[in-house]
Amino acid sequence: MTLTDSHRPKTAGASTKPAVFVDGGSGTTGLGIAERLRLQNDVVVKNIADDKRKDPAAKRALLSEVDLVILCLPDDAAKETVALIDSMGASAPKVLDASTAFRVAPDWAYGFPELTPDQADKIRSARKVSNPGCYPTGGIALLRPLVDAGLLPADYPVTINAVSGYSGGGKTMIASFEDGSAPSFELYGLGFEHKHLPETQLYSNLTRRPIFVPSVGNYRQGMLVSVPLHLDTLTGKPTGADLHAALAKRYAGSKYVAVMPLENAATQGGRIEPEALNETNMLELYVFASEKHRQAVLVARLDNLGKGASGAAVQNMRLMLGLADT
After folding, report:
1. Between β-strands 94-97 and 109-110, what pairing exists: parallel, antiparallel or unpaired?
2. Active site residues
């Protein structure tokens, strides 16, 4: 691909290699991004000295040298850095934000390239992209195609249940599981204000706020997101095969989203475990359905640190920089 002016690398002496800075690389997402970037030879990764990380002048100087910055910061810190970038004018880099600060902001592109047929192009042309949350990645992937196909009413009372490995909970949660002080399993977010709800509702095209019940298990990474449905309450009273066909149509040809065959779902023995896609950027979608009982459960499986975080970030980075998919 020929680089446009907006993609022209800033790195001196490396005309074909754009430069990237990961701001806040000590958390699980930042570390995962850094690990993935080490495996790629078509970008230059720049860093800032530890004692300069909170120096606005030093940060501004580095930002002016890179083509794209990936923010792995708390929401408030991300907002401060974006304000700094906005003040830089023509020297400002593109920005990919992994926090929740801008996921429903109208002037930001949502970084789920498979959301709609034209979403990847929106990400390619965007100056600012918000990396999705892990839970919303699974929930939106299941719900949006069914809403768009008219099978699931936009005001349907959706319930989303999900379980993640403890690595998605930040340093405190990780420490509590690794030192044995955490419970083996727990529900959380029961105050109905989980930070992933706004983006899940918005990008699923739901007009009714869904009920979201997340949970965490005593294993490091891997995620299942499930949506139970009564088929006779859906538009046109579809079969499980109809739901599967709508998902398969939306993700046909997708490299990272796989709609698993119905027969695979039927032969899972009524079980599915969360860790099979760990260390990948893959997302698997399943339809488990009973025509006898007219019920279905949609399930998304992904690595909460892969397609749910670092893997998605690198996928978006490559789109934003005009690089070939890998």
Report:
1. unpaired
2. 134
